[in-house]
Specification:
alpha+beta, two-stranded antiparallel sheet, 15% strand
Length: 75
């Protein structure tokens, strides 16, 4: 990458892996995943029951980092 220490809002986007892989893997990635798991379990135990709104589907963004870009729920 040219000029890596300069801010350039027009720079071409490069795909990345959030925690890295191989020799560049983030040393704290396992702790971060555990913390996210605990957060999600605790959150689900406290919110009211919900479901995916009928007639809709989650919008997935697969890749190195899997994500859901859209999810319509109803309480």
């Amino acid at each position: 990458m040219d000029r890596p220490f300069e801010i350039d809002f027009e720079r071409e986007q490069k795909p990345h892996a959030a925690f890295g892989t191989g020799p560049h893997r983030c040393a704290g990635s396992n702790l971060a995943r555990l913390e996210m798991r605990v957060l999600i379990e605790e959150w689900f135990s406290r919110i009211p029951e919900f479901r995916i709104k009928p007639g809709t589907s989650p919008v997935f963004n697969p890749g190195t980092v899997n994500a859901i870009d859209g999810l319509i729920i109803e309480w």
